[in-house]
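Researcher: Structure prediction, please.
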Amino acid sequence: MNDRETCAKLYCDLCDASIRKDADGIASVLADDYELIHMTGIRQGKRAYINAVLDGTLNYYSIAHDSVDVEVSPDGGRAAIRGRSRVNAAVFGGGRHTWRLQQDLKAEKRNGAWLLAESRASTY
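Model: Predicted structure follows.
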């Protein structure tokens, strides 16, 4: 698997682990200094995101990917990932709904392994 495929898989693995409420699976693809910036502007670090998935603050039911685009930097150490997916979820106490969610993610190769370092959510 090349770097582009590996980075696309990181995004898909994060989505799948979030649906399963798999803390270890989520943790395995996120850098320790990972930050998620929600559409509302709320910022969550790695542990806060995992806890919100586990405690039901963020409930993901299904995710259908429309596209996952990856650009790897010329030095091969960073990547920009844009995932566009239809996400069925109930978040922050709201009702269950399907959103057209765009995630703009930054990935970094650390100690030879790709990890997600940041994600910005918006709609498309």
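Model: The CA atoms of residues 35 and 45 lie 4 Å apart.
Researcher: Thanks, that helps.
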